[in-house]
Amino acid sequence: MTAQISAADRPTRQGAVSLRGARLAYGDRVLWDELDLDVRPGEFLAVLGPNGSGKTSLMRVLLGLQPLSGGTVEVAGAPPGRGNRRIGYIPQQRALDPALTLRGRDLVGLGLDGHRWGLGLRGRARRRERVAEALASVGATEYADTPAGLLSGGEQQRLRVAQALVGDPDVLLCDEPLLSLDLAHQRVVSDLIDARRRAADTAVLFVTHEINPVLPLVDRVLYLVDGRFRVGTPAEVMTSATLSELYRTTVEVVRVRGQIHVVGAQGVCEDQAHHVAEDA
Ligand SMILES: Nc1ncnc2c1ncn2[C@@H]1O[C@H](COP(=O)(O)OP(=O)(O)OP(=O)(O)O)[C@@H](O)[C@H]1O
């Protein structure tokens, strides 16, 4: 299946992320194939799909941790990999080990590893300044010197956002960064990501099971289901016809007060259409 990108949608500038004829398979299992995708600088792409559809694997490909089985990939104009410092990554929220004594400030500083500002006093001062700015931008200054393992999940996640942004990335990869955050912190984290892309034209690829918390930010959606996919605006992709085709079962998309709800054959109403499809 080919991506639904019209010629008019194709960017004239170099894409922040560019996949051509990309294929990822583990043995016989094809997660996606013939994926053509250009993500523009400053664009917010939500990556949706059921468990096991290959969302995290896509992030791993873009991070250079997983080679494609076919096709090509470029991130910020270069092959992904360890040398590519233009990528920021916010992993899935997982509680840090309470015994971790690393301070928040040090954790954020790890995001600068590989940036060459010299080892002299000026380089070190600049580095400290950047870390302090990043901590302030996520409201983490007051707990920057607390061992990170003792912080709450929301506090730890704000540090991860700061770590991803401190290196001034062109591309920000976010793997379910709102998971297990309360509504207030979901808002803080999504606002920070949005502010970053607006201020610095950073492209954002945002893996999520729930589109609603970020719906106002989403330019396009990549929806993966069982080896099939669609790319397009939420209005194009989040429709009963498109999702029913992707899931190969009847799925209804209902819009209520500006939110999108996916209703399956068994009347389940939630944002995780995959459970509907799996049960059907
Ligand atoms: N290195 C690997 N070797 C073999 N299979 C793998 C490997 N990595 C992932 N898989 C399988 O590929 C499928 C896609 O995994 P992936 O983590 O990308 O899915 P996902 O869409 O992020 O799922 P979730 O929503 O549950 O996080 C899964 O079935 C997983 O078991």
From TrEMBL:
Highest taxon of the lineage: Bacteria
Keyword Nucleotide-binding: yes
A Pfam match: ABC_tran
PROSITE patterns documented for this protein: ABC_TRANSPORTER_1, ABC_TRANSPORTER_2
Domain (ABC transporter) ranges: 17-251
Keyword terms of this UniProt record: ATP-binding, Nucleotide-binding, Transport
SUPFAM superfamilies to which the protein is assigned, alphabetical: P-loop containing nucleoside triphosphate hydrolases
Molecular function GO terms recorded: ATP binding; ATP hydrolysis activity
Family the entry assigns: Belongs to the ABC transporter superfamily.
Name by which UniProt lists this protein: ABC transporter ATP-binding protein
Organism: Saccharothrix coeruleofusca
Lineage: Bacteria, Bacillati, Actinomycetota, Actinomycetes, Pseudonocardiales
